[in-house]
Design brief:
The structure is a homodimer.
Chain A: H1 7-25, H2 29-39, E1 43-44, H3 45-51, H4 56-68, E2 72-77, E3 80-85, H5 88-104, H6 106-115, H7 124-135, E4 139-143, H8 147-152, E5 159-160, H9 163-166, E6 178-182, H10 190-200, E7 204-207
Parallel strand pairs in A: 4-5, 4-6, 6-7
Antiparallel strand pairs in A: 1-3, 2-3
The first copy, chain A, binds a DNA duplex (30 and 30 nucleotides) through helix 4.
Chain lengths: ~220, ~220
DNA sequence: TTAACAATCTAACGATTGTTGGATTAATTT
DNA sequence: AAATTAATCCAACAATCGTTAGATTGTTAA
């Protein structure tokens, strides 16, 4: 079975392969952070390394990748080498990929709300997406209220882990998934405390300010 | 040395990591091709596999990745499962990443000209980019004219390999790099023939319709 | 000239991803 | 109920990528 590829097929392969170089360059969190930093203006490797909290060697390696995709350019000035984005289109692309991520990934939306320290309530569409993600096991939805309250009603696919048992049962939680904690609602601080503890212990945790009431799942008589 | 990460740092990591999911999803040539196919309308896995010339298993695996980044959605209809892009933003992103690739990567621009079968001359900016790529060894610029002509003048970083020796010396060329062949100019067919042979032998070759005259490097008395 | 500094290159490793074959699920047809 | 079809899941392997340590290249300052 000689796999004879047609000329057209071969040409197509080359084409998509080239576009994929841009995708590859933007497939690493650290490289994206470097791009964003460079969108603020040209910087040395040292500065970039410091601002993105990585070693200079690693920064250099990532910048090498970006340069091989022609997304950034360099210029030496004395002992330093200054990096800058190749042109305006690169900055526009950074905005585009970030926007798409915000549009498609609920987890990002929530993490964003978290970092701005003003966690917002989710739109109905966001809720759907969160439920979907929880069903597929992409995120862990954690109910940190006392067990009886969980038993009465809880968010879809949520698992119960009361705040006072959290410290003892940390090992039950995965470190590689985003944990979304919620409690009684935006005025209740249990979820916030839980998230603080989880973060301190190295988990990727975010705080959902809503509770069963806000989700229309409050138990009725 | 306990590497205590600050809360802000940790939150940032989550953010960029999420955006990188989109980058990862679009870092494979085959996944990009699948996205483009889906931009034309919903299709079954079988159709997608056929149209992108891969096995159904592989198509399924790639679609799984796309789905985990929420770029595509599925719906079962009888025996078939139909895939479609999640929303209009995904199609817009495909256009955006392709545009950026065309803007930044000369090789893509040239391959495109090649596939449309109307190889165009390069702008001065494109020439610069090609020279740069050749200098860095990213592409091989191949002069297929007779040796004496090469000796008289040739494009920057070009290597000589006369068309009548090409078949014998194929082993000197790398299979993992794009080979850009040129000859006397747009009316000369040596480079075209060379590219046809190279492609047939499994190389990634494209045809540059310009020669030393067009590049302003023609030898003078 | 030597020392110091900024950055890269090289080699190595472990982790992740791409790809394939074989078994499995789910819906349809016989 | 058995066979067929469409697609996925699982396990395995090879290929690629991320990361770090150690040596090296340019450039400036002493």
């Amino acid at each position: 079975m000689t796999s004879q590829k047609s000329t057209v097929r071969r040409a197509k392969d080359i084409l998509y392969e080239q576009v994929a170089r841009i995708g590859k360059a933007t497939s690493s969190a650290k490289r994206l952070e470097l791009i964003e930093l460079l969108c603020q203006g040209e910087k040395t490797v040292e500065t970039l390394a410091k601002e993105s909290a990585i070693s200079m060697k690693l920064a250099s390696a990532h910048l090498r990748e970006l340069r091989s995709a022609h997304l950034v350019e360099t210029e030496r000035s004395g002992k330093n080498i200054y990096y800058r984005i190749a042109n305006r289109e690169v900055a526009e692309f950074w905005v585009a990929i970030r926007s798409l991520a915000e549009d498609r990934l609920v987890e990002l939306k929530m993490a964003l709300a978290q970092i701005t320290n003003a966690p917002k309530e989710l739109t109905p569409k966001d809720r759907d997406a969160l439920v979907k993600a929880a069903r597929q096991g992409e995120v862990i939805v954690l109910d940190v209220r006392p067990s009886p309250e969980f038993a009465a009603a809880h968010l879809p696919y949520a698992q119960s882990l009361p705040i006072d048992q959290l410290r003892l049962r940390l090992s039950e939680l995965p470190k590689d998934k985003t944990i979304v904690a919620y409690c009684r609602g935006p005025y209740c601080l249990m979820a916030k405390d839980a998230v603080d503890l989880l973060k301190q212990k190295g988990f990727a945790a975010i705080h959902l300010p809503e509770g069963v009431a806000e989700w229309g799942m409050a138990p009725v008589r």
